[in-house]
Amino acid sequence: MEADAAGVKTPGLKLTKRPGGDMKFEGTERYYLSPELGEIVNIAIAIEKPLLLMGEAGTGKTQLAFEIVRAFGAKMEEARCKSTFKGEELCYVYDTVLRLNDSRFGSGETGRNVNDIWDYLRFGPIGRAFLAEDRRVLLLDEIDKTDSDTQDNLLDVLEDGSFIIREINHKVAARHKPIIIITSNAKRELSDPFLRRCFCHYIPFPGAEEISVIVRLHFPDISTRLLDACLTEFYRLREQGFEKPPATAELLDWIGAIRSSGAGDPGAGRAVRHIGTLLKRSQDLLKFKGIVQRTQFR
Amino acid sequence: MLSFIQQLREAEIPISLKYVLEFYRGVQQGLAPDVDRLFLLARLIFVKKIEHYDAFERVFGAFFLGRVPRQMPEWEDVFEGKPFEEWLRGQLEQRGILSAEDLRTFDTEELLKLFWETLLKQTEQHHGGDKWIGTGGRSPFGHSGRAGGGIRIYGKGLHGTAQKVIDRRNYINYTEKSTLARDNLGHVLASLKNLKRTGPATELDIDETIARTAKNGGEIELVFARELRDRLKLIVLLDNGGYSMFPYLELVKTVFGKIRDHFKDLKYYYFHNCLYGAVYQDLARRRAIPWEAFISQGSEAHLIIIGDANMGPYELMATNGSLYFHTPDPRPGREWLREVRGAFPASVWLNPIRKEYWSRESTTIYQIARMFPMEDLTLAGIRNAVQILSRARN
Fold it and tell me: Which secondary-structure segment (H or E) carries B279?
């Protein structure tokens, strides 16, 4: 066993270690990577399992994939999931209409051969990641938007890194198993077989210490006094049970707004400055202002 | 190691053989050189759902860190227990750490947090640091105070992750038994969305297109077919009468409000205590929906009744049992409920009272539970309810 697992033995895949000997993986100048998460990424890569990241919006799930791409210098294939996806189109699309059209009117100058189905297959992000000559990072963003049938269609993809082109019964296997990062906002439960094939990690909302690191990445010259005041107010608001509690992105917007307006403090109570950057829902804003809606007695 | 896995199983975490093999492979690859990484590796492999985080952490803590599998008691028990009382007195009298005024301003959670901190500190002293120190500059009991809203701050660095995480019990709100609260709303929603989605979509009917195109003498004619999807209606029937329901009303509405878009049709109706011939459109129960109009939706809609089912037996059983004297129809509540159950094959009753207390609370709960499948308003309960509904429909 290696005492220092910071560099997991996967050739060419290594997150840089900070020279200070600190056990923290280097985020980039705009991203803070918690040590735990860094370790989890390494484990997932070493065992070649897809990594499913769950957690509320604004915890940097999607961003992590981009950071891995940057750290490894790999290329990324990205799939932003929609509820209408069936799963297959992420692997390939068979353009029947185009072929039909070509068979009727001819393919002209395009060089497509109507008799060759391969000319009418277009590969989606998964297909491209599998067929690439290099090891890619494959991001399946917000998988929870798809329904469970879709997730089941992707099982083979996750399990053995392969899919089948049904029309010609051709199996496409990954040349290099991509690093698969999947994100979910837990809008809907994922199917059990899908979960079984992933490493699942729940990213909790960062605590005060982590979040001050994050803020300082974006505003390196922020004064400690302002930062403390903002964070106190921020966590207080988060605990108020708003429908959409402010998250990291809102916090950064807010601090940006306070700074650019030249105010030296965030304001307190109902006089919080630029509240619109923190609370987005009208219900939440009304609640914040202490206006209780009585719509029920119209 | 196998007994660790056995313990995980006993803690009701589903473990497949595949996980065990993966775990061994991971350990062999040297992915778990210390207890922190072992913790992460094991959690990644064995735990797939956030509901199981808490159980996992307890088992891991007991097995690898030699913790007594101390059952973290429920709040109420803590507050009633002797150690807490003694501690509180100690804090108030001797050390002057807490003043009586502080006590009033603190909410229960803060108080509890302070208590645990003291307790853990004592554990540290007693055990002479075999588990608690030497973890790379961790300062376990640092506290950020007011800045950051009383969030506890632990030492940096990877070392101590396991202990840190376990001590915090971050995931207790997500355990299956926890009642509905803001923290776990998202997961409640997740369960509800397992009900099938609705919505029309069109897709190219290739066979038909080719057939028509051939008939047309090669002139392409595209044929689109409607995608087959379930169209789902949901009716939520809320008891908004008794104060027993009051704490849950807003929460329930938030839950269902958020998923409104995902149903073809989502309707709230209100009733008080028991059903007598009408349900109401508004909270004040003035605008009534005719009984027939309500019942007739039964063939295509799912029905969720949310109420404590706690009423005087008289209200349920007796003719003219309604609390409200102007209720025109003399039939007893039981009959009305039975009619609803008959009309809505897919219906379920959610009770905010925890299952354990049903027998203690009221006899009518069981009588109603005999008519409607009844679950409590916890994560597990809602999940069961969703299953009951989807099964009834299929």
Answer: strand B278-280
Q: Using a CB-CB distance cutoff of 8 angstroms, which residues of chain B are in contact with residue A160?
A: none
| Record: contact A97-B204, CB cut-off 8 A | yes
Query: B388: closest CA among B353, B345, B354, B339?
Result: B345
Among B35, B144, B382, most A C-beta atoms within 10 A, so best to mutate, is: B144
Please name the residues in contact with B387: beta carbons below 8 A apart, sequence gap of 6 or more: none
Per-residue pLDDT of chain B (394 residues), as tens digits, is: 778 888 888 887 888 888 888 888 888 888 888 888 888 888 888 888 877 888 888 888 888 776 654 444 444 455 555 555 666 666 555 545 555 555 555 555 555 566 555 555 544 444 333 333 333 333 333 332 322 222 233 333 344 445 555 555 556 555 555 555 555 556 665 555 545 444 444 567 777 788 888 888 777 777 776 555 545 677 888 877 655 666 666 667 666 665 555 555 677 788 876 776 678 877 667 777 778 888 888 777 888 888 877 776 666 666 555 555 445 566 777 788 888 888 888 888 888 777 877 877 777 788 888 888 888 877 778 778 877 877 765 5
Residue A260 contacts residue A218 (beta carbons within 8 Å): no
CA dist B332 and B320 (Å) reads: 6
Chain A residue with CA closest to B46: the answer is A199
Query: How far, in Å, CA of B299 to CA of B306, rounded?
Result: 20
Cβ separation of A231 and B147 shorter than 8 Å? yes
Nearest to B44 among A54, A97, A199 (CB): A199
Is the ipTM, as predicted for this complex, more than 0.85?
A: no
Q: Quote the minimal CA–CA distance from B238 to chain A in Å.
A: 14
B53-64 vs B161-168: helix axis angle to the nearest 10?
Answer: 130
Q: Which two tokens stand for residue B384?
A: 């069961």
Q: Given an 8 Å threshold on Cβ–Cβ distance, is A100 in contact with B209? A: yes
B206: which residues sit within 8 A by CB, 6+ positions away? A96
Chain A residues close to B41, C-beta within 8 Å: 43
The reply to whether A43 touches chain B by the CB within 8 Å rule is yes
Q: Show residues of chain B in contact with A2, CB under 8 Å.
A: 30, 33
Portion 144-183 of A in contact with B at CB < 8 A: 144, 147-148
Answer whether B194 sits within 8 Å of A44, measured CB to CB.
no
CA distance A70 to chain B (A): 22
B41-75 b/e with 16+ CB inside 10 Å = b? bbbbbbbbbbbbbbbbbbbbbbbeeebeeeeeeee
The reply to whether A228 touches chain B by the CB within 8 Å rule is yes
CA distance A272 to chain B (A): 16
| Burial class of residue B98, CB neighbours in 10 A (0-12, 13-18, 19+) | middle
Among partner residues B22, B170, B258, which is closest to A47 by beta-carbon distance?
A: B22
For A104, which of B204, B220, B282 is closest by C-beta distance? Answer: B220
